[in-house]
Write a structure and sequence with these properties.
The complex is a heterodimer. Chain A is built from 11 helices and 2 strands; from the N terminus they run H-H-E-E-H-H-H-H-H-H-H-H-H. Chain A is mainly alpha-helical. In chain A, strands 1-2 form a two-stranded antiparallel ribbon. In chain A, strand 1 and strand 2 (55-56) form a beta hairpin. The longest helix of chain A has 37 residues, at 245-281. Chain A is globular and about 70 Å long. By secondary structure, chain B is α/β, with parallel strands linked by helices. Chain B has one domain (8-250): Rossmann fold (3-Layer(aba) Sandwich), CATH 3.40.50. The chains are: A mainly alpha, B alpha/beta. Chain A binds chain B through residues 92, 160, 162-163, 165-173, 176, 180-181, 185, 280-283, and chain B through 56, 58, 61, 63, 86-91, 93-94, 96, 98, 100-103, 112-113, 116-117, 148, 150-151, 161, 164-165, 168.
């Protein structure tokens, strides 16, 4: 093949790959929207499931997922960001920091069901929180911690050394330099990490399976020690157990659609926040 | 310019510096007078920037960097154990090779130092104005203090960085090749500014530009391979160098 043909072939291969990927996403989205949009209504979002989940809405599952996201992000983000700051700004690279980073990377690759069992052993049993919103949120926080740490660390690395030098040369301490110069410049990257995490927290089923998600609980949790319903587990329950799978099918698609839109909405919000900070920095 | 009556501001005694195993400075000693401009010249890798960064202890940030010897500022060795590096850097400001304004507004860039050092809120605006006037930037930016400092031209950014340093009210300002990223007109402005600044500050400047050293400095130090070869009044160094190597460098035989 001459250079021109190779060029054309390479270009077509690349283009075909991206078209294939986009069409998968498009088909998935279209299918869920078509199957699910009919059950969507304000009532569906705000009412309790009824009649062995074959009727009614998904209110407790929706709120449960919202609580999970809020609580686990609130736990994982400060912990993760502080760890990343320590690793990138303070720790001198030694064997032990290498081991720590390897551990974080491995944590990111650990199957989520392992996190679920770990959460059961540690939070539910050992700390005796019982199956609860708290135990499940802590488990999910552990799950997303490596994502938050890695994204934050990458974001900190990209902050130019010149900013740090300029601040230190003004007689500013390292912590104040980190707090007032480095961290604000890293916010867009850190927010990206949080976006990815929210998607995972909202969608994961295995980690909450053993740690607090309820099969059926038609009320909201009244404290962090209550059990709760969550969208992905609700979907799993309706799709696998019971004898009314056919009857619950529209509700299943509706639930999937709501979960998808929830994650999408949060992502959009995070993108807006990230853009806002980027504009503030660059311009 | 007479040596008589001038007060030494920075006294360097037998300074040696190592990066890991590699020695980068050998027994450097010199006395830099107050309210003067001292130029550090020499070919790339001669240690002049390394030496400059010893004066505000920026080399502390480099891993594996070891320093022996003394630098006295106001009769205090800055490498003594009880010296607060943060206080030292307030007193010894630094302007870098590449203009490095923070990604924030012009006002916030200058106000950053005083704010962090707990200057009262109502005193900050006058400090910002004074610093910008001192750096000959006030006229150009006074009507757009809220815009990003990154929108300024390279030369304006560098003067902003000088103003930012001045806002912390140091006694000494170190310049690390401040014009190497700038066009000739901006360079000219910075040079005029440095001549103006020496009334109030002691200035040490690293430069690759021989004409620049000749134009603005009172004293010149010539470095080669980590050693201070010659130090004296600029006029003498350029017109009547005592060392063969200094003459070779100045006349452009190498470097």
């Amino acid at each position: 093949m001459d250079a021109k043909t190779t060029e054309k072939f390479a270009f077509l291969t690349l283009k075909a790959s991206i078209l294939l990927v986009v069409s998968f996403v498009a088909i998935l989205l279209a299918y869920i929207i078509i199957q699910g949009y009919e059950v969507l209504s304000i009532d569906f979002l705000t009412s309790m499931p009824k009649n062995r989940m074959t009727e009614g809405g998904i209110y407790p599952a929706l709120m449960g997922t919202a609580y999970l996201v809020g609580l686990s992000i609130a736990i994982a983000v400060p912990l993760g960001v502080f760890s990343a700051i320590y690793l990138n700004e303070y720790a001198t690279p030694t064997k032990s920091t290498w081991v720590i980073e390897m551990a974080i990377n491995n944590l990111a690759g650990t199957p989520s069901v392992v996190f679920g069992l770990f959460g059961l052993a540690l939070f539910v049993k050992f700390f005796d929180f019982g199956p609860s919103l708290l135990a499940a949120s802590l488990t999910l926080a552990l799950l997303i911690l490596p994502v938050v740490i890695r994204a934050s660390k990458e974001a900190l690395i990209t902050v130019p050394l010149e900013y740090r030098e300029a601040s230190l040369a003004l007689g500013v301490t390292k912590w104040k330099t980190t707090r007032h110069i480095v961290l604000p410049a890293a916010v867009p990257g850190i927010v990206t990490g949080i976006i990815l995490s929210i998607g995972r927290v909202a969608g994961e089923t295995a980690p909450i399976l053993f740690t607090g998600a309820a099969y059926f609980l038609p009320r909201l949790p009244d404290s962090v020690f209550s059990q709760f319903m969550a969208l992905p587990y609700h979907l799993f329950v309706m799709a696998t157990s019971g004898t009314n799978i056919a009857q619950t099918r529209p509700i299943q698609y509706g639930t999937a659609l709501v979960l998808l839109m929830l994650v999408l909405a949060v992502n959009c919000l995070a993108i807006v926040i990230r853009k806002h900070y980027r504009n503030k920095l660059k311009r | 310019m007479s040596e008589m009556g001038s007060v030494d501001d920075i006294k360097v005694e037998d300074l040696n510096l190592w990066y890991g195993e590699k020695q980068a400075l050998y027994n450097v000693s010199m006395k830099i007078p107050k309210n003067s401009v001292t130029a550090l010249i020499g070919p790339s890798g001669c240690g002049k920037s390394t030496f400059l960064r010893c004066i505000n202890r920026m080399n502390d940030l480099i891993k594996g960097c070891r320093i022996e010897g003394k630098i006295h500022i106001d009769n205090k060795n800055i490498y003594d154990r009880d010296v607060d590096v943060v206080e030292l850097r307030k007193n010894v400001g630094m302007v870098f090779q590449k203009p490095n304004p923070f990604p924030m507004s012009i006002y916030d860039n200058i106000a950053y130092g005083p704010k962090i050092h707990n200057v009262k809120k109502n005193e900050i605006a006058p400090i910002v104005e004074e610093a910008l006037k001192g750096a000959a930037l006030w006229k150009e930016v006074s009507d757009r203090m809220d815009t990003s400092a990154l929108d300024l031209s390279g030369g304006q950014q560098q003067r902003l960085c000088i103003a930012r340093t001045m806002a912390v009210k140091p006694e000494i300002i170190l310049f690390d090749e401040p014009c190497s990223a700038l066009d000739p007109i901006s360079t000219n402005k910075i040079e005029d500014l440095i001549l103006e600044l020496k009334k109030d500050y002691t200035i040490v400047i690293v430069t690759h530009n021989m004409q620049q050293a000749a134009r603005i400095s009172d004293y010149t130090a010539y470095f080669l391979l980590g050693e201070l070869i010659e130090f004296g009044e600029t006029k003498q160094i350029f017109e009547n160098p005592q060392e063969k190597s200094t003459e070779d460098y100045i006349t452009g035989r190498f470097g």
